[in-house]
Amino acid sequence: MTIDSLIALDQELLTWFNGSESLFLDNFVVLLTTGITWIPLYVALFVLVMKNNEAMSQIMLVVGCAALCILFADGVADGLVKPLVGRPRPCNDPLLKYAVDIAGNYRVSGFSFFSAHAANTMSIAVFFTLLVRNRTFTAAMLLWSLLNGWTRLYLGLHYPGDVLCGFLWGAVSGCLAYLLFYKVYLRISPKLNYISTQYTRTGYSKNDIDMVIAVMVLTVAMLMILSLYTMHLF
C-alpha cells in the first residue's frame, strides 16, 4: 500500500467519525475536548496519590513521573514530529476544509500529525493504570483517553491515523514514565505486596479509586446537562 493510498484511506475513515446533525452532540464534544473540563479528574488523581502514599518523596515521584508523561507525549508530538511532517489539520486543509463538518466553528491552528491530545491522555491513562492496577480503573482511564481521541475526529481536528499514532506514542510514553517510577520507587520505598480486598496489590484503596471514577462520571454528566442547556439557548 502506497503513502497516497494510506492518506486517501485516512481521509475516507474521517468521514465516519466527523460531525453529526446533532446540536447537542456538537456542544457536548466541544466541552469534552476542552482541557479545563478535566481539571476535576486531575485533582481527583492527585488526591488518590496523596491518600495512598505515606511519604512526600513517594508523592512527588508520582507527580514528577506523571509530568514526564506529558513531556514525553506532548514534547515529541508538538515539538518534533508535527513541524517535521507538516500535515495540515482536516479543518484547515485547503482541499478538505469545506467538506469537513466543523462544530460551532471550532478551528485550531497548527499541524495534524500526530495528535498530542491523544498522546497526552493515553500517556496519563497508561501510567496510572500501571500504578494503580485495578481493572475497573483501567477500563475507565482507557475509555477516557479513547473518548478524547474521538472528539478530535468528530471536530475535524485530526485524521484517524493521527489519533492512532498519538495513542501508540502515548502508551509508550506512559510505560517509559512508569519504568522510571518503578526503578526510583524501589530505591526510596520497600517493595510491598498488598493482600486485601480493600486495596489493590500496589496499595491503592478501592474506595479512593471509586472516588476517581465517580468524578469522571459526574464530569461527563455535567457536560451533558450543560450541552442540553446551551442547545436550548439557540
UniProtKB/TrEMBL annotation:
Q: Which residues cross the membrane?
A: 28-47, 59-77, 111-130, 137-155, 167-188, 209-229
Naturally occurring in which organism (per UniProt): Hallella faecis
Q: Which residues form the Phosphatidic acid phosphatase type 2/haloperoxidase domain?
A: 62-178
The protein's matches in Pfam families, at most eight in alphabetical order, are given as: PAP2 (PF01569)
> What keywords appear on the UniProt entry?
Membrane, Transmembrane, Transmembrane helix
Which InterPro entries does the entry mention?
A: PAP2/HPO, PAP2/HPO_sf
Name of the featured protein: Phosphatase PAP2 family protein
Q: Which CDD domains match?
A: PAP2_like_4
Q: Record's PANTHER family?
A: AT30094P, SPHINGOSINE-1-PHOSPHATE PHOSPHOHYDROLASE
Cross-referenced Gene3D superfamilies: Phosphatidic acid phosphatase type 2/haloperoxidase (1.20.144.10)
